[in-house]
Amino acid sequence: MAGNSFGQLFRITTFGESHGGAVGVVVDGCPPGIEITEEEIQVQLDRRKPGQSKITTPRKEPDIVKILSGYFQGKTTGTPILLIAYNEEFESDDYLELKDVYRPSHADFTYEAKYGFRDWRGSGRASARETLARVAAAAIAQKYLSAIGGSASGGKNTGIEFISYVEQVGDIKANVDFNSVTAKDVESNIIRCPDQKVAERMIELVEKVKADGDSIGGIIQGVIKNVPAGLGEPVFDKISADLGKAMLSINAVKGFDIGLGFRSVGMRGSEHNDAFYTDKSGNVRTKTNNAGGTLGGISSGETIHFRVVFKPVSTIKKEQDTVNTKGEATKLEASGRHDPCVLPRAVPIVDAMGALVIMDHYLRNKAQNS
Amino acid sequence: MAGNSFGQLFRITTFGESHGGAVGVVVDGCPPGIEITEEEIQVQLDRRKPGQSKITTPRKEPDIVKILSGYFQGKTTGTPILLIAYNEEFESDDYLELKDVYRPSHADFTYEAKYGFRDWRGSGRASARETLARVAAAAIAQKYLSAIGGSASGGKNTGIEFISYVEQVGDIKANVDFNSVTAKDVESNIIRCPDQKVAERMIELVEKVKADGDSIGGIIQGVIKNVPAGLGEPVFDKISADLGKAMLSINAVKGFDIGLGFRSVGMRGSEHNDAFYTDKSGNVRTKTNNAGGTLGGISSGETIHFRVVFKPVSTIKKEQDTVNTKGEATKLEASGRHDPCVLPRAVPIVDAMGALVIMDHYLRNKAQNS
Amino acid sequence: MAGNSFGQLFRITTFGESHGGAVGVVVDGCPPGIEITEEEIQVQLDRRKPGQSKITTPRKEPDIVKILSGYFQGKTTGTPILLIAYNEEFESDDYLELKDVYRPSHADFTYEAKYGFRDWRGSGRASARETLARVAAAAIAQKYLSAIGGSASGGKNTGIEFISYVEQVGDIKANVDFNSVTAKDVESNIIRCPDQKVAERMIELVEKVKADGDSIGGIIQGVIKNVPAGLGEPVFDKISADLGKAMLSINAVKGFDIGLGFRSVGMRGSEHNDAFYTDKSGNVRTKTNNAGGTLGGISSGETIHFRVVFKPVSTIKKEQDTVNTKGEATKLEASGRHDPCVLPRAVPIVDAMGALVIMDHYLRNKAQNS
Amino acid sequence: MAGNSFGQLFRITTFGESHGGAVGVVVDGCPPGIEITEEEIQVQLDRRKPGQSKITTPRKEPDIVKILSGYFQGKTTGTPILLIAYNEEFESDDYLELKDVYRPSHADFTYEAKYGFRDWRGSGRASARETLARVAAAAIAQKYLSAIGGSASGGKNTGIEFISYVEQVGDIKANVDFNSVTAKDVESNIIRCPDQKVAERMIELVEKVKADGDSIGGIIQGVIKNVPAGLGEPVFDKISADLGKAMLSINAVKGFDIGLGFRSVGMRGSEHNDAFYTDKSGNVRTKTNNAGGTLGGISSGETIHFRVVFKPVSTIKKEQDTVNTKGEATKLEASGRHDPCVLPRAVPIVDAMGALVIMDHYLRNKAQNS
Predict the structure, then answer these.
(1) How far is CA C9 from CA A299, A369, C27, D246, in A?
(2) N or C: which end of chain A has fewer CB within 10 A?
(3) What is the spatial distance between Cα A160 and Cα A146, in angstroms, rounded to a whole number?
C-alpha cells in the first residue's frame, strides 16, 4: 500500500535508494519454468545504465543484477525471485551540498513534507536508479511474452514485442512508422531514434544542452506488437489506464496518450472511428488504428501505440533560486553529474513498464477467461 | 482483480450494466461519522445525468441513487455503503440492431474476444452509465475532503476543492485561469466552460455536430485546490500516476498530462523548474507551478492541475463500414440517442475520479505518516 | 482494506446490516459463461435461513436473493455480479432495549470503541444476516467447481464437492466417516448430523437449551472432496491458512484445525506421517490422511477435512450483568428471538467459505501454473 | 497474489529458499522514524536460530540479517526496508538423497504437482528457514508497538507486548497463568515453557524423541497484552481470523483457537459470556476473558490469548514407506539434522506473526477511524 509494488498477479516490489546497500526487486507470481539467464537480464539493464554514451551522465554505476532466489537449474521455480544490484561505495561529500537545500522541481521538499526527514544521498528513493529494478524484473516478463503470439495482429507469430523509441527531443521530431520499426532500428544510434537523420540533430541538441549545464525534455513512442485480443479489464483496469499509470510512475514523466490521443481532439467521430473488416486469415481487424490497440480498455489485437512525455529533468548546473530546509532563501548550483536528457536511457524503462502491464493482464485474463 | 474496484483504503467497487437490474457501487473503508444526505449526492449526479440540456443525449435515465447500507441517522457508519440506481424498463428492440454487429471503435468486439459473448443491451458494462456509480461514491469523499485544509496552498482554509471545466471542444479553446476559477463559474453554462464567450461558440459547434449525426472530442482541465503537501507514494503510486490511471479509466479518455505536460517538451530545465520561496505564513511555496502540484509524485501544496483528453465518441448516426459477429462485412447506421460531445457531462466524472484519488491517498498517508 | 472483501481473483465484497435497506454482495472476477439460476442459489440460502425448523430462531427473514448485474441470458457474463436481499420493514421498538447497553460477549462495545457509534438495530453489521451474502456468492463458485474434477482423489470424476456436517453439539459427539458421507446424509435431519441416532440426542439438547433461554456451542466437520493436487500458495496463503481465516471469519467461530489438528499433539512423527503409494490409476496417494488434504499448504489430492468450533452464541434470554453506554452497571435480559444453537444453519456457511477459498485458489493456480 | 506477502498496510514480502543465494524480506509501508538497530532485530532472530540448544537441530545456519534499504541514520525512512540473510555454501550431496523421492507428509510432492519441478535442496521454499524473514520484519513492528499503550487493559502503559510460550509438548501440559507471565519467564529455559518443573519433563521428552530419531508435536500459547480496543475489521478481517491465518501459515501448524476455543463447545452461553463492568479508571472491562480479547473480531482491550498447534514435524530418521518421483515404491530414512520438536524455536515466530497482524490492524484502524 506504500506504492512500491506494481501488478496484481505478476507482482513486483522494488526497494533501495541511490546509495545505501542495494537496489532491487522481488518478483512474485512468476510462472515456473521460464528459462532465462542473468546475462539475458543484463542486456536490458545495459540499455538503461548510466555512462553508456557521450550524451548520458558520465556516472559509472554498477548495474549488475544477481538472481538470489526463485531460480534453480536455469529456470524460474514459481517462488519469489530476488534480483539485486549492490550499490558501490561513494563519497558522501558529493551530496553534502544537497543535504540542507531543496532542489527546485525535485522531490526533496515533498519527501520531507511526507516523512519528516529524508535520505539526502543521491536523491535517495527518488533516484532514477530505482528503475533498474523494474527493467530487470520486466526482462523476465519479456522472455515469457516473447513466446505468446497475438492472433489477429498479423500473420507471423513472433511473440509479443516491445519496441519503444525516442520520437521527439525538445522541438525536434522524428518521422517513424511504428508499424515497421524493429528493435534493431532503435539500437542503431545512441539516442535510440530510428530516424537516423533526425537522430543526429537530436544528439547535437543534447550535446548543446549539456554544454549549457541545462536539460531538455522529449517524447518516447511506445509500441507493443502482437498482443492477443481480449487482454485488459473493462472498467478501472483498462490496458490504456494501466499503461498510463505505469508510464506516469517513471521519474520525470508528465504526460501520456494512446492512439491519436491529444491529436484526436479536433476530429469528428466519423473521421476517428476505426472501421472493422475481416482479413484473409479470418481475423477481425481494423482498417486504421486511431484507437491505439485497445477498445473499451481491452486489447483489440492491433498494435498498441502510445506516447510518453518526459519533462526536462530538474537537476541542472545553472544557478537557481530556492530555499533551504529552514525555509531561508538561497541559491543552488548543482555540481553532480546528471543526464541532460533522460530519453535514450528511458526507452528500456518504457519497454519494461509496458511488459509488466501486459504480463499482468495476460495472467489475469488467463485466470478468469481461458 | 477483475478491475471493478478502485482505491486501496477508500475502495469502491462498481457493478451494473446499462440495462438489467441496476448500476451502483459499494464504498468500503469510508470513515465513520460523515454527515451526508442522498440529496447532496444527487447534486453531483444531476451534473452527470443525460438529458440535462439541448447538447446532451435526450435519453432520460433514472439517475436516482439510494443508500442501502453503511448509513445510520444521517451519517456513514464505517461499514460498506451500498449506493444503487435502478435501471428502468426498456425496449429491447431499441438495441436489437446492435446485437450481431460490432460498432466501430466501440467495445463490442473486444468484450466478445475476452468473454466469449456479451450483454448487447445498451453497451452493457461498457456503458458510460457505469460512471454514475463513481460520481455517487466520490460525493462522499468530496464531503469529507471539504473539511480538510491544505496548509501551503494559500490563505483561506476552504478545504480541498475539485473544480474541473471544459477547456477545449474540437479546435475551440477557452482562455481560463485555473487559479481563480470557481465551481459557480463552471456551472454558469451548459457546456461547463467558464470562458463565457468561448462557451457559446463551443455550444454552437456541438449543436452543429449533433445535427450532422456526428461526434466531437475535447479537453477537460482538472483542478484540485488546497491539497496538503505530502500526499502520494513515491514510486508506483505517485499522485500523478494514480490521477492518470483514474482519468484514463473514464470512457473515451485517450490522454492525460499534468502541469505543463506535453507543453514541457520544448523547454529547458532552467525554464521549467519551479523556484522555491517561503511565503508570509512561513510555508514553502513555488513561484510558478509548471509541475502541476506534485513533485516526485507527492503533493507539494500547490494546486494540482492536469488535462484529460476525450476522443470523439464512437457511436454516431452516420453510416459506417464494419463486420457482424460472423465476421461478414456490413454497414451500420446507429439509431440510438447518444451524446454528440461527452465533455459537459464528463466534468463531474473528472472531479469524482480526482476526489477518489485524493481521498485514498489522504487515508494512506494518515496510516503511515501521521 | 476495511475487511469486507474476501478472495483475490474470485473476490466478493459484502455489504448490509441486519436492518436498513438490504444485505448483499458483489462478486468480481467470476468466469463468464457459468449457467446458474436464482433458484439454484436459493437452494443454498434456504439451508441457512432462519425459521427453517423448531430448533432455529423463529424469526422469518426474507432471504430471497436477486441477481441485478453481471448476468445475461441465464449465464454469468464476466462482469461484477450483484446479489441482493432486501430487508423487511421492522419495528424499531424491538431493538430499543439494546440501544444503550452492551450485550456481554457481543460486538456492541467494540463497534463503538472502533467507530464512535453504532447502528444498534439488530446487531447492525455484526448480524449473522451478513453470511447470507457469502452463501449466495459461493453458490456460483460451487456450480463452477462441480465441473472440476480432482485427479487423484478417487476414481469417479464427480467434481469438487463441499459436504460439511454437524459433528458435535455441547458434549454430544457424532460418529461419522467423512470419507463416505453424502450431501443427502447431511440433509436427512434438521440438525444436519449424518449420525441419525446422535442427531436425535443433539436435537433434544438444543430444545432443552432453548427452553432454558440459553445457548450451546459445537463443532462442524468440514469436508471438501475431489480437489486436484497443486492448489494453494506455499507461504502465507496456504490452503490450510486461508481455510482457517475463512472459517474464523464466521460469527461465533473460535477455533479451527485441519487433519488431525489438536489430536496430533501427542503423536510422534512416525505415527502421524502419511505414507505415499501409487494407486492403480498411477496417481500418487497417501495411505492415511492425517494431514487433512494439504501438504506444505498445497492440496495433495486427498480429501480436505477440518473442524470448525462454534462457541455458544452470546445473545441469551437469561439475565446478565453488563454496563450501558455511559459505563453504568446494569442488567440485561434479551427478549429477541435468537438461535439457541447456530450449528445447523452454519453448515451451509462452512460449505460456502470452503468454496470461496477453493475457487479463488483454483483461479490463482490457473493463472500462474497452467 | 502468489502468497509471499502478508499484511495490507504494514506489508511484508518474503523471498528465498533454504539454499541458493539468500533469504529475506521487503517491508513496505513501515512508518518513518522508528529507531532500531540490526542488533535489536538479531535478538529475535537468535531466539529462532538453529543450534541454540541441545534440543534443537545441530545445524549452524548464518541467521545474520542485514538492513540494505529504507534505513538512514539509525531510523526507518518510510521507504521499503530490505532485510537479508545470505545462505552459506553447502554440500549439495547432503540433499541428493531427497532429489528423487517424496518425503512423507512433506511438501515435496505437492510442489511438484503445482510447479512441475522443485528446488530439492534443503526443502527449498518450504524450508522453515523462510520464517527468519518474518521474525526479522516483525522485530520492527514490535519496536513500534512497544510505544503504543492499550487504554483498557490495565493500568501501567507498558506498550503492546507479545509473550508466547510453550504450553504443551506431546502429552505433557504446563500450568501457566498467561495474565502474569513475562518475557523473562519464557526465556528462562531452553524449551521456552514458564512452568519450570514441567519444562524439565518436556526437555526430557524431546531428548528421548530425538534419540529415537522421531519427532513430537505440541501447543504454543500466544499472548498479546495491552492492545487498545477497536482494532480489527468486523467481517472477513477479524483480528481472530487474521491471527488464525497468520499462525496457520507457519510450517507444521495444524490448528488454532482463540479464548476458550475448543474448550467452549460444551459450555452454555450463560457460562461462556464475559460480563462487562467499569473499572476504577472508567474503562469498560470484562470480568472474565473467555472470548480471548476480541468481540466480533475487534479487540476489546483485554489480553488476546490463543493456542497454536504444531504437529510432529515430518522429517524423521526412521525408515518410512514412500514413492519416488517416478511413482515407484521405495523406502526413506532421512539422514539430515532436523528438529525433533520445533516448538522452542517457534515461540518467536508466533510472537512475530502476532506482531505483524496487530501492526497492520493498528495502521488500518488509524487510517479509517482516528
Answers:
(1) 20, 12, 10, 20
(2) C
(3) 5
Q: For residue C76, which of B17, A9, B25 has the smallest C-alpha distance?
A: B17
Give me the residue label for grid cell 438444543.
C206
Question: Helix, strand, or coil here: C31?
Answer: coil
Integer angstrom CA distances of residue B194 from B52, B163, B168, B197, B311: 18, 11, 11, 9, 21
Contact flag C78-A369 (C-beta cutoff 8 Å):
yes
* Three-class SS state of B185: helix
Identify the sign of the CA torsion A36, A40, A44, A45: positive
Residue labelled with grid coordinates 515533498? A110
Instruction: Return d(Cα A265, Cα B93) in angstroms, integer.
Output: 33
Beta-bridge partners for C216: D268
Task: For chain D, positions 72-111, list CB contacts with chain A under 8 A.
Answer: 72, 75, 77-82
Name the H helices within A162-320. Answer: 183-186, 196-211, 239-248, 269-272
Residue of D nearest to B234 (CA): D79
Nearest-5° Cα angle at B338, B337 to B341: 145
> For A292-306, how does the pLDDT look when each residue is reduced to its tens digit (9 = 90+)?
999 999 999 999 999
Distance CA A344, CA A352 (A): 14
**Containing structural domain, residue D123:** 5-369
What residues contact B335, with CB distance under 8 A and at least 6 apart? B97, B317
The CATH number that applies at residue B117 is 3.60.150.10
Q: Say how far apart CA A164 and CA D170 lie, in whole Å.
A: 63
C171 closest CA partner among C137, C203, C119, C218: C218
Q: How many CB pairs under 8 A join B and C?
A: 156
Question: Three cell numbers at B15?
Answer: 457493478
**Distant-in-sequence, close-in-space partners of D87: CB < 8 Å, separation ≥ 6:** D16, D17, D18, D19, D20, D21, D22, D23, D61, D62
Q: Which three cell numbers stand for residue D133?
A: 524473514
3-state secondary structure of A167: strand
Q: How many domains are there within chain C?
A: 1
d(CA B114, CA B101): 16
Over residues B198-218, mean pLDDT:
97
Task: Confirm whether pTM is higher than 0.90.
Answer: yes
Per-residue pLDDT tens for D300-314?
Answer: 999 999 999 999 999
Average pLDDT, chain D: 94
Bridge partner list, D216: C268
Question: Hey, what amino acid is at C86?
Answer: Y
Is the alpha carbon torsion for B21, B24, B25, B26 positive or negative? negative
The answer to whether the beta carbons of residues B163 and B351 sit under 8 Å apart is: yes
Q: Tell whether B5 is within 8 A of chain A (Cβ).
A: yes
Q: Which residues contact C292 (CB under 8 A, 6 or more apart)?
A: C240, C258, C259, C260, C261, C304, C305, C306, D254
Cα C360 from Cα C245, distance rounded (Å): 14
ipTM: 0.97
Contacts B298 to D, Cβ<8 Å: none
Cα angle C258, C264, C268; round to 5: 140
Q: Which chain C residue's Cα is nearest to B74?
A: C119
Of C55, C358, C43, which is closest to residue C227 (Cα–Cα)? C358
Beta strand B253-258 with A253-258: parallel, antiparallel or unpaired? antiparallel
Positive or negative: CA dihedral C283, C288, C290, C292: positive
Q: In this predicted model, what pLDDT tens digit does every residue of D98-113 receive, in sequence order?
A: 889 999 999 999 999 9
Of D1, D8, D121, nearest to A11 by CB-CB distance is: D1
Q: Report how far residue D21's alpha carbon sits from residue D135's, in angstroms, rounded to the nearest whole number.
A: 19
Could you tell me which chains touch chain B, where touching means 3 or more CB pairs under 8 A?
A: A, C, D
C-alpha cell at B160: 480541498
Residues of A with CB below 8 A from D21's CB? 66-69, 82
